[in-house]
């Protein structure tokens, strides 16, 4: 029991010692165990790594080989395409050359001739220049003609003026207006006046007066038949000295319109005109213009023109008027001559020989 | 009394019916001179005013006139034809009233009279009646007036020729059938001979008649040309009288507008140069037919447009465009320039060198121009710009053009710049690139594509340099730069 008590008193201590001694060993055990594990694991690791390295090497070799192969395949494809493309480009370039030439040729030959167009435009511009010149000349000619006409007109007017003012010419005694003694030489009008012929009043306007019938009142009272002066007399004119009539009365009388008498109202040869008219109407209806002459005395001196049928160069043909028998005796039926069946009329044996003149042409 | 009414024609009557009832019995007077004076008075009254003319018609005077026209002497015929003319000239209804009372037959009989004065009065009346519309013209033609008018043209009196030519012109202007009737009567040969006559009023009428005939169809125009009017017509373009020039250029225009062959004929005869000189020597409305003629010739084909260009037509047209005050003449000039410049780059260049494009642009933009002018100048600008490769002329457009035109301008730049290095340099130095960068365009629109293609012609730093706000970005970089501290 004592041991038991002693043991029981030492149990905890023993327990602690037991535990302590086991655990000390355990500490080391763990350490040693860990160390052994570490060493082993390192070694296994080395093994495995070597194996993996080996595997890597082999895999790399395979992959290297495979990549080279596929790359070369790609490269071959690339080269093929590149060479195809190069060829196509070359062909295209050559085809373009050919097409270019062909297109140029076609356009030049069939569609559009550039040189012809240039030629045409040049010709057009030349024509234009020619037309412009011609038109300029034409306009200039017209101008010149107009100027000439103007000058001539002015010249004529001045001449006319000079003729009208002829009385202003200077005489030996009296110098005229244009020949003032204070001038060095006379005015050009003076020379003109010298050259001009004096104007006679009748020469100024000669118009042919066509005959107007007094029927047309409008024309009769025109200026042609009763010429009036252009200028009216001045308003504040002094009364002329002398026993003159009132001016209005005079003008009234002077410009009284024509009141033709009945005799004058008709033209003087009206009867002849009417006869002519009638004759014309008759003439229209005639077939033959020769007058019909009824009596033989009108034809007395006319020579008879025989028919062409019965006349020849040597005189009239006797067959048909003198004898009626055929010329050729072989055609005769019998020898004897024809006998006139009817004797001639006794009535006409005394024709023209009797006393009475009845029925005779006188 | 009659001389009183004759002299007092400007006097406005207070009762036209009253006057008519006074004059009407005088028409039936025994004395022939009273009849003539009454007719003359009626004519002068009707001539003055269309109310009076209506009163003449309503007063039933016309049948009496027509009836006695057939049998009276030549003075009465002249006076009666004068009345008919005076009534017929105011309106189509009055002219129809004259036709309805059977005056046409008697007028045609008057055309056969011996006295040239009667013929002149009758032809004048017929001309005024036929002037209004096609039905009246047809009525005149049906009465058989046309062969007699052609005979009248051959008479020696100038006044009669004038009136007959004017009557033929009035008849043939309405429709091709009427013109064909006139041609069938053999009018063209006589009219063509009379072009050489020195009288300018006659030439006016003759040229007007020929142009009215030629305007309807190609066949009629060819018949007029076959009468060998070229190159004689070109001398009429140098005439002193303005209206002769105008009618001559109208005739050439009517011939040129039908087919390219006819235009070619005119160009070959040197007509273009003559017309251009004529345009240069006139002002105002006289120029208008000449300008239109150039437009028509250039519109047919590019060779003809080139012929117009080498005849120095473009400077003349641009002068017209800038100095004419009236809008319709400017519109015609703009149209003609558009027709010339629209064919190829050569043509567009020829138009652009004369500095007309800015003028056209200003006309399009100005608010004072009429609508017609704006539309025509816009079309002309568009047509020319689509072919223009002459960059110095396009550059001003970058600055003041509205967006719809700017698109075309930038498009042209984008076509030319990729191929021409000198042009690129010039574009940069003149500030064009800067301006292009400043243009705002919607992404994806045509304008943006053009701008992109222009930007692609230049290295990037240049484009960035010229883009707006570049100086700001540079300054920002300066701000954000940390210098290296060693």
TrEMBL record, chain A:
Subcellular location(s) per record: Cytoplasm
The keyword Repeat appears for this protein: yes
Pfam entry (one): IQ
Keyword check for Transport: no
Chief location bin: cytoplasm
GO MF terms held by the record: calmodulin binding
GO cellular component, one term: cytoplasm
Protein name: Spermatogenesis-associated protein 17
Taxonomy of the source species: Eukaryota, Metazoa, Chordata, Craniata, Vertebrata
Gene behind the chain: SPT17
UniProtKB/TrEMBL annotation, chain B:
Sorted UniProt keywords: Cell projection, Cilium, Cilium biogenesis/degradation, Cytoplasm, Cytoskeleton, Flagellum, Microtubule, Repeat
Gene3D superfamilies: Leucine-rich Repeat Variant (1.25.10.10)
Pfam families associated with the record: Arm
GO BP of this protein: epithelial cilium movement involved in extracellular fluid movement; filopodium assembly; neuron projection extension; sperm axoneme assembly
InterPro entries the record matches: ARM-like, ARM-type_fold, Armadillo
Compartments reported by the entry: Cell projection, Cilium, Flagellum; Cytoplasm, Cytoskeleton, Cilium axoneme
GO cellular component: acrosomal vesicle; axoneme; extracellular region; microtubule; sperm principal piece
Primary site of residence: other
GO molecular function: microtubule binding
Oligomer and partners: Interacts with SPAG16 and SPAG17.
Reported function: Important for structural integrity of the central apparatus in the sperm tail and for flagellar motility.
Protein name: Sperm-associated antigen 6
Organism: Neovison vison
Gene that encodes the chain: SPAG6
């Amino acid at each position: 029991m004592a041991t038991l008590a002693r043991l029981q008193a030492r149990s905890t201590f023993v327990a602690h010692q037991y535990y302590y001694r086991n655990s000390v060993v355990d500490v080391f055990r763990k350490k040693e165990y860990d160390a052994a594990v570490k060493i082993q694991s390192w070694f296994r690791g080395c093994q495995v790594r070597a194996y993996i390295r080996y595997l890597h090497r082999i895999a790399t070799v395979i992959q290297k080989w495979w990549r080279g192969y596929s790359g070369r395949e790609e490269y071959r494809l690339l080269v093929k395409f590149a060479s195809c493309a190069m060829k196509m480009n070359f062909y295209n370039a050559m085809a373009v050359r050919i097409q270019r030439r062909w297109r140029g040729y076609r356009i030049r030959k069939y569609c559009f001739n550039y040189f012809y167009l240039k030629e045409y435009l040049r010709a057009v511009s030349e024509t234009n220049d020619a037309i412009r010149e011609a038109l300029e000349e034409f306009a200039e000619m017209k101008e010149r003609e107009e100027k000439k006409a103007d000058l001539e007109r002015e010249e004529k007017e001045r001449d006319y003026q000079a003729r009208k003012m002829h009385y202003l010419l200077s005489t030996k005694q009296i110098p005229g207006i244009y020949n003032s003694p204070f001038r060095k030489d006379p005015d050009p009008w003076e020379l003109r006046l010298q050259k001009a012929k004096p104007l006679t009043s009748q020469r100024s306007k000669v118009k042919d007066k066509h005959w107007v019938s007094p029927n047309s009142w409008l024309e009769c009272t025109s200026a042609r038949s009763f010429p009036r002066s252009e200028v009216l007399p001045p308003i504040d004119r002094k009364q002329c000295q002398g026993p003159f009539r009132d001016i209005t009365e005079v003008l009234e009388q002077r410009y009284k319109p024509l009141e033709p008498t009945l005799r004058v109202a008709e033209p003087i040869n009206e009867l002849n005109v009417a006869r002519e008219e009638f004759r014309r109407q008759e003439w229209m209806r005639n077939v033959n213009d020769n007058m019909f002459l009824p009596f033989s005395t009108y034809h007395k001196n006319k020579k008879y023109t025989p028919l062409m049928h019965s006349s020849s160069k040597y005189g009239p043909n006797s067959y048909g008027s003198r004898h009626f028998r055929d010329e050729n005796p072989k055609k005769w039926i019998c020898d004897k001559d024809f006998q006139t069946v009817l004797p001639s009329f006794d009535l006409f044996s005394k024709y023209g020989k009797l006393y009475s003149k009845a029925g005779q042409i006188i | 009394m009659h001389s009183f009414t004759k002299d007092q024609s400007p006097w406005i009557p207070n009762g036209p019916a009253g006057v008519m009832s006074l004059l009407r019995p005088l028409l039936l007077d025994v004395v022939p001179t009273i009849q003539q004076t009454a007719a003359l008075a009626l004519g002068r009254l009707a001539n003055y005013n269309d109310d009076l003319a209506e009163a003449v018609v309503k007063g039933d005077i016309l049948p009496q006139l027509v009836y006695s026209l057939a049998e009276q002497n030549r003075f009465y015929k002249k006076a009666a034809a004068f009345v008919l003319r005076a009534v017929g000239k105011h309106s189509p209804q009055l002219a129809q009233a004259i036709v309805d009372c059977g005056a046409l037959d008697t007028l045609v009989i008057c055309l056969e009279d011996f006295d040239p004065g009667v013929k002149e009065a009758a032809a004048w009346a017929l001309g005024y009646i036929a002037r209004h519309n096609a039905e009246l013209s047809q009525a005149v033609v049906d009465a058989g007036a046309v062969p007699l008018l052609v005979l009248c043209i051959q008479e020696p009196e100038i006044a009669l020729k004038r009136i007959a030519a004017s009557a033929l012109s009035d008849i043939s202007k309405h429709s091709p059938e009427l013109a064909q009737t006139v041609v069938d009567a053999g009018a063209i040969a006589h009219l063509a001979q009379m072009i050489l006559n020195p009288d300018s009023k006659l030439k006016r009428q003759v040229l007007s008649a020929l142009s009215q005939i030629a305007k309807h169809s190609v066949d009629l125009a060819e018949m007029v040309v076959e009468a060998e009017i070229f190159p004689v017509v070109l001398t009429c373009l140098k005439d002193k009288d303005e209206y002769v020039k105008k009618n001559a250029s109208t005739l050439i225009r009517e011939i040129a507008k039908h087919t390219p062959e006819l235009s070619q004929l005119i160009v070959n005869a040197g007509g273009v140069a003559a017309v251009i000189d004529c345009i240069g020597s006139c002002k105002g409305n006289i120029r208008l037919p000449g300008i239109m003629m150039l437009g028509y010739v250039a519109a047919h084909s590019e060779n003809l447009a080139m012929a117009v260009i080498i005849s120095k037509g473009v400077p003349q047209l641009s002068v017209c465009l800038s100095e004419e005050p009236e809008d319709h003449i400017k519109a015609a000039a703009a149209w003609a320039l558009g027709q010339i410049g629209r064919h190829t780059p050569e043509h567009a260049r020829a138009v652009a060198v004369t500095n007309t494009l800015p003028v056209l642009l200003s006309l399009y933009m100005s608010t004072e121009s009429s609508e017609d002018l704006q539309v025509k100048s816009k079309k002309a600008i568009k047509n020319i710009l689509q072919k223009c490769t002459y960059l110095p002329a396009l550059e001003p457009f970058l600055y003041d053009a509205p967006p719809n035109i700017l698109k075309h301008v930038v498009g042209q730049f984008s076509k030319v710049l990729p191929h021409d290095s000198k042009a690129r340099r010039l574009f940069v130095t003149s500030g064009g690139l800067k301006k292009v960068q400043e243009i705002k365009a919607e992404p994806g629109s045509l304008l943006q594509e053009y701008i992109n293609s222009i930007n692609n012609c230049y290295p990037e730093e240049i484009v960035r340099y010229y883009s707006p706000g570049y100086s700001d970005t540079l300054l920002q970089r300066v701000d954000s730069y940390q210098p290296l501290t060693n």
